[in-house]
Amino acid sequence: MPKQILKKPAVIAVMLALAAAGAQAATPAKKGKATVAEAERFLADTEAKFDKLNLEQSQAQWIAANFITDDTEALATYFGEKTLNATGEAAVAARRFNGLRLSADAERKLKLLQLNLVLSDPKEREAYASAQAALQGAYGKAKYCPPGTGDGKEGCLALGDMESVLATSRDPAKLKEMWVGWHKQSPSYKQRYADYVVLSNKGAREMGFADTGAMWRSQYDMPADAFAAEMERLWQQVKPLYDSLHTYTRYKLYETYGKDVVPLTGPVPAHLFGNMWSQTWDNLYPILKPASGASSFDLGNVLESRKTSAKEMTEYAERFYTSLGMQKLPATFWERSLLTKPRDREVVCHASAWPIDAKEDVRIKMCIKPTTEEFTVIHHELGHIYYFLAYQKQPNLFRNGANDGFHEAIGDTVALSITPDYLKKVGLMDQAPDANADVGELLKRALGKVAFLPFAYSVDKWRWDVYSGKTKPADYDKSWWQLREQYMGVKRPAPIEASGFDAGAKYHVAADVPYARYFLANMLQFQFHRALCREAGYTGPLHRCSVYGNEKAGKKLQAMLEMGQSKPWPEALKAISGEDRIDGGALLDYFAPLKTWLDEQNRQLAAKYQKS
Ligand code: X8Z
Ligand code: ZN
């Protein structure tokens, strides 16, 4: 995972794991009272050092994720440790300047430096970096070998193969086999993860945080407890919409699979949602779509039948950004990115975006398939890339998203502009459907955006309890499923086992990438979309707005991107939207016509099944 030194890499997709860090102050503690001049010199030296370290660390991590071998894992560990030393040393040294009267920028930089963990014992640093590299590699290599396929070679299935089955099959036995097959892999690295949690907490405590979860919650320009309360407030705001969608989906799954597979009340088995983690339900659209009025258009079919290549899909996304007035992607992006799954080696396929040198060398790594979902993901990844390019001119410590939710929201905001009218404009659709099809289009969108909300919330709710010690390794799955039942209304399709590690079957848990960012991003992207549509002078329903080709909206977006992390995030939000609070209202506005429709459907379905 690319992690950039101190910049919590944010985003970087992957990277992000929030930085780690370590090390004792290598330079002897200075005596005497610290001065403003010293603080400024310290920051300049630290940023220069990080510029160099970011580069070599990214290069090592890039290679490790692109060629998973014992050697590349060892190299990633080596550079990971080096980074820990530097960030740890800087975090400890920064404390000396707390309380000085400094410029707002210098004060912010010192604060950001201290949001990293520190492991002063070199053995622990080594163990931490090595566990991190090993967990990432283990997830990337994991495969399910169905009975009769021998010991892991011919016929074994990679995650992507199983995801394709989950997306398309309606045979519950086959779906369950894929689901269980994948979830059997993560227990092999459960102990490693549990050991890693202990080390990570040690590092957070050395910096004065209660545990790593508290450190994560402290990254949002507000106290950790206030952030947890914000998350809960946002969830409560959007929960009624989720409940309506879940109820409708359960009826339709009941109609599809029958009462022996899907109960009419209570949680639904997790293998039936068309997604390995039941986190997005787009693949259920064919069985959920409105009986009349819905368009039968399927972008995936068009991409597949035209044999649209990974490069062409990426070019569609690039053209969207350039239509907003943004630059073309640098030549090195095309030369160095990985866009398709290599046949002959192990790679981490989970999509990610990388700022290798914080100049022109930006890349993505993704195993693109010609599907609607991946068409959206490629816009998501380029959102990270255009953020990197926009804040390049900021000093090292400000080269990051306003908060990590912003970084995740940019590409999704752009993807909200992929409307039928837009698809027609770029030649991917012959005839845009009329207004009667709107509910179907909104439902399609909700299956990605609304279904995702309680998943995104509960991943870190689980981790906060793991990091605080409330949830012990023997209870990992018990707690994971308690949260998933409570928030998502889904249940495990097979009995829970004490040795299980279902959370570890999700990339961001194995790779230790915080997840609250995606929950925030799902709120923010609707706020950004509404603001950009207004900037473009659009006044119709939000779900039909596309800012494609609108340079005025592009300018507004670009101005926020260029701020990077230089100001507290409410200022960045204000710059683009005039608002200074993250708010689910824009999402609720966007889906308002769908909510009315769902509630009516649910009323009719309830009446129908109460009788039977
Ligand atoms: O991990 C990602 C991106 C890279 S930052 C592909 N996403 C989350 C996931 O796949 O779980 C995007 C949305 C949620
Ligand atoms: Zn992302």
Automatic annotation (TrEMBL):
Sugar-bearing residues? 85
Q: Which cysteines are joined by disulfide bonds?
A: 145-156, 349-367, 533-545
Q: Which residues bind Zn(2+) 2?
A: 380, 384, 408
Q: Which residues bind Zn(2+) 1?
A: 380, 384, 408
Q: State where chloride binds.
A: 220, 517
- Which is one Pfam family of this protein? Peptidase_M2
Q: What is its EC number?
A: 3.4.15.1
Keywords from the named record: Carboxypeptidase, Disulfide bond, Glycoprotein, Hydrolase, Metal-binding, Protease, Signal, Zinc
Domain of life, per the record? Answer: Bacteria
Active-site residues are 381 (proton acceptor 2), 381 (proton acceptor 1), 508 (proton donor 1), 508 (proton donor 2)
The GO biological-process annotations, alphabetized, read as:
proteolysis
Q: Where is the signal peptide?
A: 1-25
Q: What is this protein called?
A: Peptidyl-dipeptidase A
Q: Give the originating organism.
A: Pseudoduganella violacea
User: What phylogenetic lineage does the species belong to?
Assistant: Bacteria, Pseudomonadati, Pseudomonadota, Betaproteobacteria, Burkholderiales
